[in-house]
Amino acid sequence: MTEPTGLRLYDYGASCNCYKARLLLVQLGLPYERVPVDIFDGDTLTDEYAAINPARSTPVLETDGRFLPESNAILVYLARGTDFLPGDPFELAQVVRWLIYEQTDVVPMIGGLRFRLLVGRLTDTDPDAVRRREGAQEVLRLLDDHLATRDFLAAGRYTIADIAVYGYTHRAHEAQIDLAPYDNVRAWLERVEQQPGYMEDVEPYGANAAPGAGRSIYGD
Ligand SMILES: N[C@@H](CCC(=O)N[C@@H](CS)C(=O)NCC(=O)O)C(=O)O
What we know:
Mean pLDDT: 95
Number of strands: 4
Structural class: alpha+beta
Number of helices: 7
Radius of gyration: 17 Å
Helix content: 40-55%
Order of helices and strands: EHEHEEHHHHH
Strand order of the largest sheet: 2-1-3-4
Distance between the termini: 45 Å
Low-confidence stretches: none
Strand content: 5-15%
Bound molecules: glutathione
């Protein structure tokens, strides 16, 4: 399998979607150039950025002059042909299952709540915060039950399914979510953190992430 070359990652340091890509790149030992995008300083609102990613989100991976948005698509692209992505069709589909679940459930509930609480876009008792916290608890219960009989989410080994779900789950405390009731999730987080090449470099949100302080697709 030819290794991808000419890699550039357009990313935002506080985003766990971006961190997922950075983690896999490091664990694969792939050199890449990091292009910082300040998503709260209008960097994603330019015509140049829309040409890279019409959805104006980060991360985007550039590979030999082509642009790939969507964090989990980036994980699949980088992991192909490695132990991080199974070749067996059923195991591969199980990995895809978790990549989808991460985007539809983990990110809006845990990640969305984390972002809004950290930067002051929601307070703890806002109805939207309550809704997301209840959703996060359902997500964590589902993950905990799944991990009761498994060390990793899919294929019996550490794959990009674990990287994707780890991305926001390991920062659940920043969404004021207590992980104490979820023993299996906590044990799994530790297993992920013991994997070769593991690193954690998620940065704090900048002051311009507060409502009204910057310019972004969030509209204020
Ligand atoms: N489904 C996308 C979501 C990406 C996303 O929402 N990225 C946020 C940071 S976590 C972003 O770049 N927002 C752009 C902006 O606020 O302008 C993915 O997984 O890549």
